[in-house]
Design goal:
By secondary structure, the chain is of the alpha/beta class. 46% of the residues lie in helices and 20% in strands. The chain contains 11 helices and 9 strands. It has an 8-stranded mixed barrel, surrounded by 4 helices. Strand 6, helix 7 and strand 7 form a beta-alpha-beta unit. The radius of gyration is 19 Å and the shape is globular.
C-alpha cells in the first residue's frame, strides 16, 4: 500500500519549507507595539512569513509545528534571529532605536547552549542583548519549569522573556512566579470583548494588576478598536499591539508608520 495522502502532503510541505529556508524564500514582517501612556513605539515583534509558489501564503501555525517535528526549528530560529537583528541595525542607522521581540520554540530551550548562541549572534551583529525580548507561549511553560537554568541564563545575559497568550493555557500562578519572565502578554480572546463584556474586563484588569504586582510589563494583544485601546489605557495596561495600531509590516515601512501613527495618536487617545 502507498503512503497515506495526508502523509504525502505533509512531506511535500516539509520539503518545500526546507527549500524555502535554504534559498532565502522566507521573509520577516514586524508588528509595532506601543506604550499606552504615550503612544510611542516601544517594540517590534518579528514574525516569519512563507509564500509557497503553489499554495500561496502558508500560516506559521502550519509550518512551525512541522519545523519542530522534522528538526528544522534550529536553522529557522537562527535565520530568523540574524534577519531580525540585521533589520534592527538598519533601523538604528536610520535613526529608529527600539526593542525587538522574537518568538522561540520550547524545543530550542532544551539545548543547553541556546542562550550562548543567542548572545553570540547579538555580539556578532553588535546588537545590545537588552534590546531583545524572547516570547514563549503559555502552553510551552509546562516543560519550561524543568528548564529554569536555561531561562535564568537569558536573564543574566540581559535578554527579556515574555509569556505569550497568557490566560488560555494551563500554567499556574506559581509557575508565573517561579519563571524569570519580564512581560505578560494578555491573550486576544480576552481583549476581543473589551470593554462591553464584564467578565473580560475583570479578567484583563486582574492580569494587569498581577503583572504589575510581580514587577512585569503587561501587554495586550489583538487590539482592534479605539474603545479597546482607551479602556486598556484606563486600567493602566502598559503596552498594546493589534490591527487597530498596525498590521505586521515590512521592515522598510516601519519608520513611515511611526511618523503617521504619531500624528494620529492625540485623536486616538482622546
Amino acid at each position: 500500500m502507498g503512503e497515506p495522502v495526508a502523509g504525502v502532503a505533509e512531506q511535500r510541505l516539509v520539503e518545500g519549507f526546507e527549500r524555502a529556508l535554504d534559498t532565502g524564500a522566507l521573509h520577516m514582517v514586524y508588528q509595532p507595539k506601543i506604550e499606552l501612556e504615550t503612544g510611542k513605539l516601544t517594540r517590534l515583534e518579528a514574525l516569519v512569513r512563507w509564500d509557497e509558489p503553489e499554495l500561496g501564503p502558508v500560516e506559521p501555525s502550519r509550518f512551525v509545528p512541522l519545523a519542530e517535528k522534522y528538526g528544522l526549528i534550529a536553522p529557522l530560529t537562527e535565520w530568523g534571529l540574524r534577519t531580525t537583528l540585521g533589520q534592527w541595525l538598519t533601523w538604528r542607522e536610520a535613526g529608529l532605536d527600539t526593542d525587538i521581540a522574537f518568538n522561540i520554540s520550547a524545543l530550542s530551550l532544551q539545548h543547553l547552549d541556546f542562550p550562548d548562541l543567542v548572545e553570540r549572534i547579538c555580539r556578532e551583529l553588535a546588537v545590545p542583548t537588552d534590546r531583545l525580548v524572547l516570547e514563549l507561549t503559555e502552553g510551552a511553560t509546562q516543560p519550561l519549569i524543568k528548564l529554569m537554568d536555561t531561562l535564568t541564563r537569558f536573564r543574566i545575559k540581559g535578554i527579556g522573556l515574555a509569556i505569550d497568550d497568557f490566560g488560555t493555557g494551563f500554567s499556574s500562578l506559581m509557575q508565573l512566579r517561579q519563571l524569570p519572565f519580564t512581560e505578560v502578554k494578555i491573550d486576544r480572546l480576552f481583549v476581543r470583548d473589551l470593554p462591553t463584556a464584564h467578565d473580560s474586563c475583570v479578567i484583563v484588569k486582574a492580569i494587569i494588576d498581577l503583572a504589575h504586582g510581580l514587577g512585569l510589563v503587561a501587554t495586550a494583544e489583538g487590539v482592534e478598536t479605539p474603545e479597546q485601546l482607551r479602556f486598556l489605557r484606563s486600567i493602566r495596561c502598559d503596552v498594546a499591539q493589534g490591527y487597530f495600531i498596525s498590521r505586521p509590516i515590512d521592515g522598510d515601512a516601519v519608520i513611515a508608520w511611526q511618523d503617521d501613527f504619531a500624528r494620529r495618536w492625540p485623536e486616538l487617545a482622546a
